[in-house]
Amino acid sequence: MSEKGIVINFNDYKRKKKGLDKPIFRKPTKISIGDLEHPEQNGQYLVICNLVHDNRQFLAMERQDEEEALLSLVEGIVEDGLLVRVAPIKADELPEIEAKFSKVFAQASTKYGIPAQSNRKKFNFRK
Is residue 79 part of a domain? Predict the structure, then answer.
């Protein structure tokens, strides 16, 4: 219940209630994603990084059940604070989102002493 004389911004309230104000994954998390081309198969991914931009969730994911050299960037669709599906990032937004993820990965590399081009995966992105 709000106190008398305090104004609540409805957009901020709605954004927080829907979980759009902070990343939904704080640590690397394994998720399964269905494949539209093969509905009987689920892909196993590790969410490497999750960031919020313009009240939208963006995920950098690494495929676990197949060997791929690139990370996948997708938009996470959130309902009631839970990830319900992922969608491709629009082509006109992709450069900006790639730049944000590259900046996060560069900061992590510097902070934790990880070479930018480690043996494990390169920070290239699959579109």
Answer: yes
Q: 33 burial class (0-12, 13-18, 19+ CB within 10 angstroms)?
A: middle
What pLDDT, on a 0 to 100 scale, did the predictor assign at position 15? 66
Residue type, 9: N
In a domain, 2, yes or no: no
**Residue 113 included in any domain:** yes
Tell me the C-alpha distance between 97 and 22, whole Å: 16
Tokens of residue 56, six digits: 């939208």
Find all residues with CB under 8 Å of 18, minimum gap 6, and list them.
78, 79, 80, 81
Q: Which two tokens stand for residue 34?
A: 């269905």
Query: How many separate domains does the chain show?
Result: 1
Residue 5 lies in a domain: no
End-to-end CA distance of the chain: 45
CA neighbor of 43 nearest in space, from 24, 60, 57, 62: 62
pTM, full prediction: 0.72
pLDDT digits (tens, 9 = 90+) for 80-94: 778 888 999 999 999
